[in-house]
Specification:
By secondary structure, the chain is of the alpha/beta class. The protein is about 35% helix and about 20% strand.
Length: about 325
């Protein structure tokens, strides 16, 4: 096998790890192009995988691609490579999100390679968590992980947590009254009905979790029509432990940084034995998003709400095969 063929094979492995990242409704809004001449792996957003209703400015696309970019960096370190990303290398092309220079490294980044086992272990959990509180030292570790990527992770106080959970409930009401939003979410839901999209993308019924018994759940219910039988019901934690991931400014480069920070936090949380899920519902409505921020935090723009705790890790969601997302030239 030639050096070029070897490099291409390793790149395919890196991309296979990269695409385990979370994305809005598991839309997997990324494309990769590897140049064998330069050793540069370009990361693009995929314009056919956008959500005009829930993500009109494509912030979610950037978050998902940023998370995949961080997984790529972790996988590269695991393989003994360095991955140096340049964000938005061609400002005139808004879909060209990053160029990653891949090189063999004598001293791979150990802090990244240590996270590699969590890349395949991390899954969003839509199950109840226990009432056991996450120790402060773990919270501090997760906050430090976000800072390493130029972002802030804050844990709101009791009153702000109540406010955020009220925003989650408000978002559910907004969603129930908006047919376009419901249709968009349904387009990315996989329950086995005829006419649904490919089984390699979207949220499968196996990842729905149980229905909430009683009050509004801290997780999104992708089966609002109750078309999936035998899901069961469960009582979710009364006081969810949440954290807010944000940045001081709001723009495409900050969204990409937030996506990388999000995945770094999620992988660290997984390594620490935590279960996690994401709550983006209030952030999909401009009239609600601004109220999610903590007025005492320097992070003026919230990009994701994280739910943390101890419980089932959740089911894996499908991914498209590498040859659908990677081109080698």
């Amino acid at each position: 096998m030639s050096t070029t063929e070897h490099d291409a094979a390793v790149v395919a492995e890196l991309v296979e790890d990269a695409v385990t990242a979370p994305s809005m409704h598991n839309s997997q809004p990324w494309k990769f192009v590897f140049s064998t001449d330069t050793g540069v792996l370009a990361v693009y957003g995929d314009p056919v995988r956008t959500m005009p209703v829930g993500d009109p400015d494509n912030r979610g696309v950037h978050l998902g691609c940023g998370a995949a970019l961080f997984n790529l960096r972790v996988a590269a370190a695991h393989h003994g490579w360095t991955a140096r990303p340049a964000l938005l290398p061609h400002p005139s092309d808004g879909w060209h999100l990053a160029d990653v220079v891949l090189r063999n490294a004598e001293s791979p980044e150990s802090d990244l390679s240590a996270l590699y086992p969590a890349v395949r272990q991390r899954h969003s959990s839509r199950f109840p968590f226990s009432d056991e509180r996450v120790p402060q030292e773990i919270i501090d570790e997760l906050s430090a992980a976000a800072v390493l990527e130029g972002c802030l992770l804050t844990v709101p106080g009791a009153w702000h947590t109540d406010t955020v959970m009220e925003l989650v409930h408000d978002a559910e009401l907004f969603e129930s009254a908006d047919a376009s939003m419901r249709e968009e979410i349904a387009a990315w839901t996989r329950t086995g009905r005829a006419g649904e999209g490919p089984s390699t993308e979207g949220i499968p019924s196996s990842a729905f979790g149980p229905r909430q018994f009683g009050l509004s759940a801290p997780t999104r219910d992708f089966d609002t029509s109750h078309s999936v039988r035998d899901r069961g019901e469960a009582v979710f934690e009364k006081h969810p432990q949440i954290a807010l991931l944000g940045t001081a400014k709001d723009g495409p480069v900050h969204w990409l940084k937030a996506g990388q920070a999000l995945e770094r936090v999620l992988l660290q949380a997984t390594s620490d034995g935590l279960a996690t899920s994401l709550m983006s519902q209030p952030l999909e409505w401009p009239e609600l998003r601004s109220f999610a921020r903590d007025p005492n935090s320097a992070a003026g723009f919230v990009h994701m709400l994280l739910r943390l705790g101890y419980g089932p890790s959740g089911a894996a969601t499908p991914r498209r095969p590498v040859d659908e997302v990677l081109s080698i030239r």
